[in-house]
Recover the amino acids of this structure.
């Protein structure tokens, strides 16, 4: 914009041009035309810059309008400050989906809907007869064991419906994913398809046939398979548009049964739907022993049955309440910055949306609240409510046939029931993940309550991966060692329930083992699994060992961290045998100064730096003893700054000279340049250390 000539009037007679800057339009309104003093731009045209506006005395001290007063009241009651409000509004503008892109996405969804309905049918065959599949597509499921009863034929879907956050208006950028529920016709399914993975086999075959035909359509630039929330029994089909719009959106197709096909009473957490004789390939036992329950398997079937009902619930609750939608978007950004919504067992954006719906139903959140207030209320609830002890439910029914919360607590670590009363929304969330969410929520609430100027920056704008959030980090690799750990820990029921996913089966036992061993040294233990990447439809699905590295983070307590002694019970106590069994050869009898003879474990540590690494000794010993995981498979990251803390001190002491003071005493005068050089070396070392801790470990 060029310089404005001096003396040009901005509110004058009709026909005069308005050259005032857009930011000043609210100040010089047309209602001031009759004012004797005009809004002018002062200054010399030689400056080449826009000059401040000269306002009349009446305009400087005019009363605020009703709109300005209402905005000030809202800022005072709904936000801490005007700055925070501006920051939140700008963030929401950045993560919301623009209307122009919505129109293009809607057009693409209509094309997908038409093409899915036109996929041709196939003749009926046995589930094990898959010769009808074309050579260019593979079944996106590990069929182990392969033999299973039942028949399959492809028929066009009974219904294709958009579900998820896109329909609700709560999806956030940069990655826009649209979920579509593809309802399979009843003719494909049979009454006993809930048993022995029959439903999941048909689901995978249905996807494979869709992938073959849609992959030949020029509308799509890429057609890939992926796992739904990391669950290897539930693949989904990813469709992206062709050409320059390939990054516009990713459509995920989720085959699902008719809503009322499976009876919910057969999918209770106490029921078994995977027979041991079929899964292990053994003849059924004749002693009449009960089958182990399969709560996770049952939950995955229920999840497909309730896709549409959950969208209807959220649509009713969120409705036209823009504040609730903004709050859900902010909570999703909060989770994403902390990487808490990734992979199997993550605290996903869907769970946050259902949590907001629960808080609305319990009147802890009102529909008139702003997005910032919804964010605070959600974080406050997470920080103060332990769902591993006291579960919550969206179900309002008093039907006595419904399972109780206690039944779900016996089967799952975290309990949050949906409106049907049968489905635990947090079935895949581990106790360690939820405790990490609680910990981050407490820190965030303390940051918000402090009203710090940079609170918004730390809360929603700064990434906080595990390497930044924990003191020590350990990586387990290769993951195939966890298969031996499952055998060592005798986790056959868990493997049967999880369809052979030995990583998920061993994870709970490993975290419990390490929490018990670290004891008072540990404040928080968390884990993270990298999400399984998508794969081409012509490739076999990735195996469990291909999912990268299992990472565990340890947040340690300063109190007791450097203690070299694990004190056990007295030798004549019944707990002594359990102590010896837990610690193995490290446990030994010792006599103490008070005359007591106790079981104890003593760790080798001569210096303070070695004492701070005692958790390393504890972890490697317990994993090798109980899980058959050698120390060569444990890459431990911790104590990297100890050498840097000591080296500058030694260097500085050698870089100085002795002088004689006025009193005749020798005084060491340090060399300032040498000290500055040491600080520079320390800074470079710190940067290298952080980079070393941040890089992904490879073998």
């Amino acid at each position: 914009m060029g310089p404005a000539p001096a003396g040009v009037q901005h509110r004058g007679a009709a026909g005069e041009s308005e050259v005032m800057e857009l930011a000043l339009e609210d100040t010089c309104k047309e209602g001031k035309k009759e004012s004797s003093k005009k809004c002018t731009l002062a200054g010399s045209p030689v400056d080449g810059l826009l000059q401040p506006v000269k306002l009349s005395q009446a305009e400087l001290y005019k009363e605020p309008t009703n709109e300005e007063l209402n905005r000030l009241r809202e800022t005072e009651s709904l936000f801490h400050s005007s700055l925070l409000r501006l920051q939140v509004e700008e963030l929401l503008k950045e993560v919301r989906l623009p209307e122009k892109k919505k129109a293009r996405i809607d057009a693409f969804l209509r094309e997908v809907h038409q093409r899915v309905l036109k996929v041709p049918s196939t003749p009926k065959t046995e589930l094990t007869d898959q010769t009808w599949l074309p050579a260019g597509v593979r079944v996106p499921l590990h069929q182990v064991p392969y033999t299973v009863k039942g028949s399959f034929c492809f028929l066009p879907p009974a219904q294709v419906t958009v579900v998820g956050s896109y329909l609700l208006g709560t999806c956030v950028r940069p990655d826009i994913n649209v979920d579509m529920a593809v309802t399979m016709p009843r003719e494909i399914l049979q009454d006993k398809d809930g048993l022995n993975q029959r439903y999941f086999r048909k689901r995978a075959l249905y996807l494979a046939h869709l992938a073959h035909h849609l992959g030949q359509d020029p509308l799509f630039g890429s057609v890939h398979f992926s796992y739904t929330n990391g669950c290897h029994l539930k693949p989904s089909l990813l469709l992206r548009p062709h050409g320059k719009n390939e990054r516009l959106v990713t459509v995920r197709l989720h085959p699902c049964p008719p809503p009322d096909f499976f009876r919910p009473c057969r999918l209770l957490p106490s029921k078994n739907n995977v027979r041991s004789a079929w899964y292990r390939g053994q003849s059924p036992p004749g002693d009449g022993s009960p089958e182990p329950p399969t709560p996770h398997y049952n939950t995955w079937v229920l999840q497909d049955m309730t896709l549409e009902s959950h969208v209807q619930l959220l649509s009713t609750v969120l409705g036209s309440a823009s504040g609730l939608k903004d709050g859900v978007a902010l909570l999703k950004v909060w989770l994403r910055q902390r990487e808490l919504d990734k992979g199997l067992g993550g605290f996903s954006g869907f769970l946050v949306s259902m949590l907001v719906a629960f808080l609305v139903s319990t009147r802890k959140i009102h529909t008139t609240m702003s997005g910032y207030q919804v964010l605070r209320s959600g974080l406050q609830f997470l920080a103060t409510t332990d769902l591993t002890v006291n579960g919550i439910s969206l179900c309002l029914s008093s039907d006595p046939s419904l399972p109780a919360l206690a039944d779900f607590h016996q089967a799952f670590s975290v309990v949050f029931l949906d409106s049907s009363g049968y489905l635990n929304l947090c079935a895949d969330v581990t106790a360690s993940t939820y405790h990490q969410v609680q910990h981050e929520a407490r820190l965030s609430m303390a940051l918000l309550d402090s009203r710090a100027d940079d609170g918004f920056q730390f809360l929603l704008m700064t990434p906080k991966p595990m390497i930044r959030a924990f003191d020590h980090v350990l990586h387990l690799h290769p993951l195939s060692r966890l298969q031996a750990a499952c055998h060592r820990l005798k986790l056959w029921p868990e493997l049967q329930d999880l369809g052979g996913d030995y990583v998920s089966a061993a994870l709970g036992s490993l975290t419990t083992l390490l929490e018990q061993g670290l004891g008072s040294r540990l404040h928080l233990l968390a884990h993270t699994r990298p999400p399984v990447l998508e794969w081409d439809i012509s490739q076999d699905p990735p195996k469990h060992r291909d999912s990268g590295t299992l990472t565990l983070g340890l947040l340690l307590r300063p109190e007791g961290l450097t203690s070299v002694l694990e004190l056990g019970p007295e030798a004549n106590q019944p707990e002594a045998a359990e102590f010896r069994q837990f610690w193995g050869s490290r446990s030994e009898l010792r006599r103490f100064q008070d005359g007591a003879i106790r079981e104890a474990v003593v760790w080798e540590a001569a210096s303070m730096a070695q004492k701070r690494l005692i958790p390393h000794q504890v972890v490697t010993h317990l994993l090798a003893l109980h899980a058959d995981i050698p120390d060569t498979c444990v890459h431990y990251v911790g104590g990297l700054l100890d050498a840097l803390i000591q080296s500058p001190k030694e260097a500085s002491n050698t870089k100085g000279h002795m002088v004689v003071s006025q009193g005749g005493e020798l005084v060491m005068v340090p060399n300032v340049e040498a000290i500055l050089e040491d600080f520079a070396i320390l800074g470079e070392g710190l940067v290298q250390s952080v980079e070393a801790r941040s890089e992904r470990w490879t073998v």
